[in-house]
Write a structure and sequence with these properties.
- This protein is an all-alpha fold.
- Helix content is 79%, strand content 0%.
- It contains eight helices and no strands.
- It is globular, with a radius of gyration of 14 Å.
- 37% of the residues are buried.
Length: 141
């Protein structure tokens, strides 16, 4: 990622944390993805924004790109699982299992994922798919 794209990405995350409208952040992150199409994290962020904006089909495409570029980050896998659930597609289990495995290896990753889930539920309290994923991650049996 070039310095200007990295700076734009950091600025976008800060704007998100400050509570800026999802509708203004989507084109901002879409531009970052256009400028750095192999940046898995940017695609994962775009997928998350689409999910928050109730655009599951767009979220699915962005999440699939993110995981195709790099299938290791658990948040990308969770975003893909959410997009699958919200769009009515099939194939959630392998992504939840991969995220669970990664979360079990590192407490910091586990904590980050749970914080992201709580952030999502605070922004979209009636998000049934996210509540299901949270339940799966907390009680995997």
């Amino acid at each position: 990622m070039t310095d200007s794209v990295a700076t734009a990405f950091d600025q976008g995350l800060e704007r998100y944390k400050q509570g800026e409208s999802i509708n203004t952040l989507i084109p901002y992150f879409k531009d970052i993805c256009d400028r750095a199409p192999k940046n898995a994290t940017a695609w994962a962020c775009l997928a998350w924004l689409y999910l928050l904006a109730d655009k599951p089909d767009r979220a699915l495409k962005a999440a699939q790109k993110s995981v195709k570029i790099d299938d290791r980050p658990p948040q990308a896998r969770i975003n893909l699982a959410l997009a699958i659930l919200d769009s009515g597609a099939k194939g959630v289990r392998p992504h939840i299992e991969a995220a669970l495995q990664m979360m079990s290896l590192d407490q910091d990753i586990h904590q980050d994922i749970m914080e992201n889930i709580e952030d999502g539920l605070s922004r979209k309290p009636d998000w049934k798919s996210l509540q299901r994923v949270k339940n799966w991650l907390l009680s995997p049996e």
